[in-house]
Amino acid sequence: MKKIIVKSPANIAFIKYWGQRDSKLILPYNDSFSMNLSDCYTLVNLEIYENKNIKQLYIKDYQSENYKNSKDESLNKVLKFFQTTKKFLSKDEEFGFKIFSSNSFPKKAGIASSASFFSGLAMAFTRAFNKKISPKKLSILARLSGSGSACRSIPDGFCWWSKGTKSDDSFAFSLAPLSYWNLCDLVLILSTAEKKVSSSDGHQKAVTSSFFKYRLLELNKRLKEIKNAFLKKDFTKFGKLLEEDALSMHMTMMTQSPPLYYWSGKTIETIKKVINLRKSGLEVYFTIDAGENIHLICQENDKGKIYDYFIRQPEVIKIIKNKPADGTRIIQLIN
Ligand code: PMV
User: Fold this and answer.
1) How far is CA 62 from the centre of its chain?
2) 96-114 pLDDT per residue, tens
3) How far apart are CA 333 and CA 335, in angstroms?
4) Which of 10, 38, 186, 220 could be stapled to 112 by a disulfide with Cβ–Cβ 3.0 to 4.6 Å?
5) Based on C-alpha coordinates, what's the Rg of the chain?
6) Element holding 311 (H helix, E strand)
7) Which among 145, 99, 79, 113 has a CA at the least distance from the CA of 4?
8) Ligand 1: residues within 6 Å at CB?
9) Beta strands at 27-28 and 2-15: parallel, antiparallel or unpaired
10) Residue to mutate, 33, 252, 289, 295, ligand 1, most ligand atoms under 8 Å from C-beta
């Protein structure tokens, strides 16, 4: 039995990907920009068997002791991605597998668990087929998993997903290594409940929002500005832009049909606290993915004070401290 263990980070987008111009090829309407997270990651352990009838998925949830055999929609997505990978790598052969996946954070709660899982699986399957492909191709394959943002977990550090013109040129690359800027992402866990509507379903309805066309128009400018602010390490400008973009994505979500409200009352309470904290002189900005939990982006020097404030808030269950991180890596290979 051959075994491949891959570690892959979740990523937090400063400029979000929302809406797909091609839902089969998972092509986005806009470029997006993210940072890989040091302490929110998935370990994908792929065991390979000669018996091709073995196709199993086991998931160990956050803070749980045991793996559970998953026979639902998650397994179907994995089986579909296995076929996509075979086609992408032009491989005819088939093998059996058992996948053991464990997360360092709650899944389906707005912390990109599908991005870390599918980027990890893209690398593990590719290795299992004994194929060597470029980081660009691996990013394209991860995108084709269905979780488009998985393509941004493949390269290192700060990653830019270029929307491209077709499947072959829509991929993520590293804009800067993790050492470029010691930004922090404090993930405030307000709830570990799984969201009811997946982002895959949500993307399909983005075009029904009358706000969406304004989002796309303002994005051209915002993308240029955030790249500049990043290259100059202008945190004030950078923070303002990333917060604006999170709000613009959630405006789209809330105004699409049917509307998607990922926020809870606790999310709004926390947003207000972030704004007040900023008024008091601490520079911290928020961003939110498809879930009610909040990501606080700050600089290393302010991290301690921001952490101490939020850990005392009754709605905060836990805080995961993240630094920028490398992308997807094979960490163990047993032949
Ligand atoms: O990659 P998906 O299909 O899980 O979509 C994720 C989209 C957001 O997390 C909401 C935004 C982003 O760019 O990460």
Assistant:
1) 16
2) 999 999 999 877 666 767 9
3) 7
4) 10
5) 19
6) helix 300-311
7) 99
8) 13, 16-17, 32, 112, 114-115, 147-149, 199-200, 203, 289-290
9) unpaired
10) 289
